[in-house]
């Protein structure tokens, strides 16, 4: 009984594990300002976000997207600066 319940909510559980792991990795000092860890978290988080959105709908997916964006805010800020520099006008 409990195993079936876990399988139904496995994307949410994995998303929460990703969030906790990302927070713990952010607390550990790093020589490269956490960029290597951010790349790994992004590579794992994008498919996980798609799985969560597919399994539970767009609102839950948006909630996890907002949570992940709040953790990985500096890569998003640099992406915005990069895009702004390349847009004409």
Structure in a nutshell:
The chain is an all-alpha fold and 89 residues long. It contains 5 helices and no strands. The relative contact order is 0.12.
Structural overview:
- The protein has one domain (2-86).
- Helix 2 (10-27) runs antiparallel to helix 3 (35-56), helix 2 runs parallel beside helix 4 and helix 3 runs antiparallel to helix 4.
- Helix content is 84%, strand content 0%.
- The protein has five helices and no strands.
- It is flat.
- The longest helix has 22 residues, at 35-56.
- The model has no long low-confidence stretch (mean pLDDT 92).
- It is mostly helical and 89 residues long.
Arithmetic mean pLDDT = 92
Tell me the major beta sheet.
none
Any low-confidence stretches, pLDDT <50, length ≥5? none
Determine the fraction of residues in helical runs and give it as a percent range. over 70%
Secondary structure: number of strands: 0
What would you report as the Rg, rounded to the nearest angstrom? Answer: 15 Å
| Tally of individual helices | 5
Order of helices and strands: HHHHH
Domain count: the total is: 1
Shape: flat
Structural class: mainly alpha
Q: Approximately what portion of the residues adopt beta-strand conformation? A: under 5%
Give the termini separation. 59 Å
């Amino acid at each position: 009984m409990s195993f079936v319940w876990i399988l139904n909510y496995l994307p949410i559980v994995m998303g929460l594990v990703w969030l906790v792991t990302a927070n713990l990795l952010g607390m550990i000092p790093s020589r490269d300002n956490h960029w290597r860890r951010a790349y790994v978290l992004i590579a794992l988080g994008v498919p996980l976000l798609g799985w969560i959105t597919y399994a539970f709908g767009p609102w839950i997916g948006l909630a996890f997207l907002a949570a992940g964006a709040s953790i990985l805010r500096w890569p998003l800020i640099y992406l915005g600066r990069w895009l702004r520099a390349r847009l004409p006008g």
